[in-house]
Target: DNA-binding transcriptional regulator CsiR
Amino acid sequence: MDTISKQNLGVSAYHWLKRDIIRGVFTPGEKLLMSGLKERYGLGIGPLREALSQLVAESLVVAISQRGYRVAPMSLSELADLYDARAQLEGLVLELAIQRGGDDWEAEILAKAHTLAKVTEVNSSEELLDVWDTRHKAFHTAIAAGCNSPQLLKVREGLFDQVERYRHLWLRETVFSAEALERKRREHAALVEVILSRDAPRAAEMMREHLMTPVPIITEVMQRRGLA
Model:
């Protein structure tokens, strides 16, 4: 097999395994048996080890000395720390974006907000989750992009990756509730209005509050499922 094909297999293994961990197919603390992974993904040991090593680096998987791998545990203390760090950084990024972003930046935010608000025509609940989540990330990414700092955006992306497992618990509670979705739509509209008014301190405060709203919901879900 050529090098490019091997790389593609490794990338595929990483994306499939990461998605399954985030979505709870593999539960916190569960041992990841190589035999089961080979059967599930139809891949050899090489690509799977490569994927597991990458997920260890992202704190989604824990390497057990000489005994394989486990899904990283989840905790309320990590939840609180990750969400606080993310909210603080996003507030800073937004203040910089308001200082540095131009007309194109504003136009992109409006376009992404409009697309997000129109998530209605989907064929299944899982498709709704995927479509809304993709558009929601695109909306927040459009806002952050105005900071024009590749380094800050890289740190931001890393925090988003680490928070994803917790966030998915909130997502399932929110996307399937018309009332919760409408509440989010109003939050996003209010946020856009303040951003376009270029009120940086107020916008940053609103962004931090907005990003912290999932924490009580995730806490309740974790306690209900015995994850906390």
Observations:
- Strands lie at 31-32, 61-64, 68-71.
